[in-house]
Amino acid sequence: MATRVQRAAVGAAVLGMVMVPLGAGAGNAWGGVPAVAVVAAPVQDDGEFAQLTPAVARQLDDAVRKVMTEAKVPGVMVNLSAPGKGEYVKAFGVADKASGAPMKTDMHMRIGSVTKTFTVTALLQLVDEGKVGLDDPIGKYIDGVPNGDRITLRQLAEMRSGLFNYSADPGFDKALFTDPDRVFTPQELLAYAFKHPVLFEPGAKFLYCNTNLILLGLVVEKESGQKLAAYVNEKVVKPAGLKNTLFPTGAEFPEPHAHGYTNQTLTGKVEDATNWNPSWGWAAGAMISTLDDLRSWAKTMATGTLLTPATQAQRLKVIDALPGAGYGLGIFDTHGWTGHNGSLPGYEAVSVYLPQAQATLAIVLNTDILAEGQEPSTLFAEAITKIVTPQNVYTLPAQNK
């Protein structure tokens, strides 16, 4: 269970997991994945994109349904588009297994580690304002961080800090799954991480780690003078024009929303995690959004319209993190698709952009239960991109069991 919980979203599936625990569901980010040496990864960038004709739409329907059946996914939504190529927007399956209510494309969903892209955007806005520097040590802002005098904000955002992932701590696991309604403070989350020794020297390796984002969230609070939720909602969500995206302050979940199902439980049995308090994910995975907002956000984060060009260029400078995927400042690139995925108990999401085709792909689903070690969100994205962008297929490694 520990490995699941620390899924970061990027990792196992890798990049997006938030944890559910961040690590656990959180998406599978790269949370439960071993550290990998920093090397450069090849990326295919020709940007070809198929015309979304009725025939292609039928192929997509079949591909989505096949993944749903094989991965046992209750419900999923897809939004795929590119200028001049058309749009494919569709919901499949059920939003509530008990009532059989259908999934609908306007439903709110928990987005796990896609939250990281909002938190890092907030940090980079402060960089643009001259309030923080990417190469400042975290110890300049937050006391008590192991190696805090040497770990930089850039290394935290790049997942190269060497800090232990709090969502991989067995005590955290037990606390979360014993009482999913519990409110965790950022300081409590850091305490789970800091009782463990550092894993490697700052900058030496890549290791997806939710602890990094908790620290960056605290930096945003300290230097902005606002609570993180308030800052993100006011300075990131609103300027981005996102009408149905929210950094919650508790377990609130706007209607309509789908029920989410997870096996990240004390018994291993599937439970409804819809109303679990996402405070354990906070800056790494607590946010809520909709399919259309995630489509819009994919372009905003990939093109940097809320940042200066220089800062956006820093964000997109990726290091090779996993086979076929590079990681920048809170953002990944897999075969040309730029963005992030997310996973936490009950939900998964993908929000990515293909620059050459100006294409966006957003996927949300109401389970985080792995299929043969793979995040179901990755299976959907891979199946879809094989059809529309065969030279740019979204792929992330399966999670180690």
| Count of folded domains | 1
Number of strands: 17
CATH fold descriptor: Beta-lactamase
Structural class: alpha+beta
Let me know the largest β-sheet.
Answer: 8 strands, antiparallel
Estimate the strand proportion.
Answer: 15-25%
> Within the largest sheet, what's the order of strands?
6-5-17-16-15-14-13-12
Radius of gyration: 19 Å
> Which superfamily, in CATH terms, is the homologous superfamily?
DD-peptidase/beta-lactamase superfamily
Distance between the termini: 10 Å
User: Which whole number gives the mean pLDDT?
Assistant: 90
The gross shape turns out to be: globular
Stretches with pLDDT under 50, minimum 5 residues = 1-46
Q: Portion of residues in helices?
A: 25-40%
- For the record, the CATH architecture stands as 3-Layer(aba) Sandwich
CATH class: Alpha Beta
User: How many DSSP H or I helices?
Assistant: 12
Describe it.
The structure is a single chain. 30% of the residues lie in helices and 19% in strands. The protein has 401 residues and is an alpha+beta fold. It has a single domain, classed as Beta-lactamase. α2 packs antiparallel against α12 (376-388), α3 crosses α7 and α6 crosses α7. The longest helix has 18 residues, at 54-71. 56% of the residues are buried.
